[in-house]
Design brief:
This protein is an alpha+beta fold and about 280 residues long. The chain has helices at about 80-90, 105-125, 130-150, 160-175, 175-180, 225-230; strands spanning about 5, 10, 30-35, 65, 75, 190-205, 210-225, 250-260, 270-275. A 5-stranded antiparallel sheet has the order 3-6-7-8-9. It has a two-stranded antiparallel sheet with strand order 1-2. A two-stranded antiparallel sheet has the order 4-5. One of its GO terms (molecular function) is ribosome binding.
């Protein structure tokens, strides 16, 4: 068993022998988030990371396009035969209904830095380290993806939000064995990762105490077999993301982590969004 730890930030081993993470429930009636006036009410958890407005980012190299509202990978139709084009698009069942985030946003990156250094560290956790948090999320990515690939959803109870697990279970039932195998990720195969958005939420439904939560959405770019390439001493091209020979080996993972920081509450980071997709699924042959 392992523990990745930075001050109050803890990432414990996601395994059968590991004790359950703390779960939580937030009332949607009076919740608010820093930077927004919208109610924090969602399907899977308290409405999360809606604290900042949509951003504009660059497009993923090649045919995929990135929507300015959510960095959503979309399909570009170039052929006049729409039916033929659709047949060439290889669609796989999505794990969860969540925007497909690909690239960082400059505006959000700046706001994330402000959130970490002027809100989270001074008022929530003085020892919080974003770089160490990112390393811990890679371990979480490996453990969660491995359990999903093996169809062992029950192992993630207490580690992943219950509502999210229900969605994941339904999605896995629609996947073939090969598609489930593609979900598995080795942390050493992650060649690029970043926090897409950092949010702080307050739940004022309880008059006695105000609940506080921090939520961070992570994006991981994965090259299957990268670990083996490095071990063999092979040179990994810097433009690996656009090379045809690596296209089908690349996947992108969106994971959202949340932790309660209410005074007097000792909790751990849990996952409430899990999504994997391949950019090659949205590229016309």
């Amino acid at each position: 068993m392992f523990v990745v730890q930075s001050g109050a930030v803890k990432f414990k081993q996601f395994s059968r022998s590991f004790s359950s993470f703390s779960r939580f429930a937030i009332s949607c009636s009076r919740s608010t988030a820093v930077g927004t006036t919208s109610p924090l009410c969602g399907k899977h958890s308290p409405r999360t990371l809606a604290a900042w407005p949509p951003s504009t980012v660059s497009a993923f190299g090649g045919s995929p396009m990135v929507n300015n509202n959510h960095n959503i990978v979309q399909m570009r139709w170039n052929s006049t035969d729409e039916q033929s084009s659709r047949q060439r698009i290889r669609k796989r069942p999505m794990l969860m209904d969540f925007p497909q985030l690909v690239w960082p946003s400059v505006i959000k990156t700046i706001r994330n830095w402000i959130m970490v250094h002027f809100i989270i560290r001074p008022y929530f956790d003085r020892e919080f380290s974003l770089p160490e948090f990112i390393q811990g999320t890679k371990q979480a990515l490996q453990v969660v993806s491995s359990s999903l690939a093996g169809g062992e959803v029950k192992q993630l109870e207490g580690l992943v939000d219950r509502a999210a697990l229900a969605d994941l279970k339904q999605s896995l039932a629609k996947m073939s064995v090969a598609e489930r195998y593609d979900i598995q990720v080795e942390k050493e195969d992650v060649y690029f990762s970043f926090p897409y958005q950092v949010g702080v939420m307050f739940d004022e439904s309880n008059d006695d105490s105000q609940k506080r939560f921090v939520e961070i959405t992570m994006v991981f770019h994965v090259l299957r077999g990268l670990k083996g390439m490095i071990e063999r001493g092979e040179t990994v091209p810097l433009n690996v993301g656009v090379l045809p020979e690596f296209r089908d080996k690349i996947s992108i993972c969106n994971y959202r982590f949340i932790k309660e920081f209410t005074k007097g509450v000792d909790s751990d980071w849990t996952v409430n969004v899990v999504n994997h997709f391949k950019p090659s699924d949205y590229v016309e042959e």
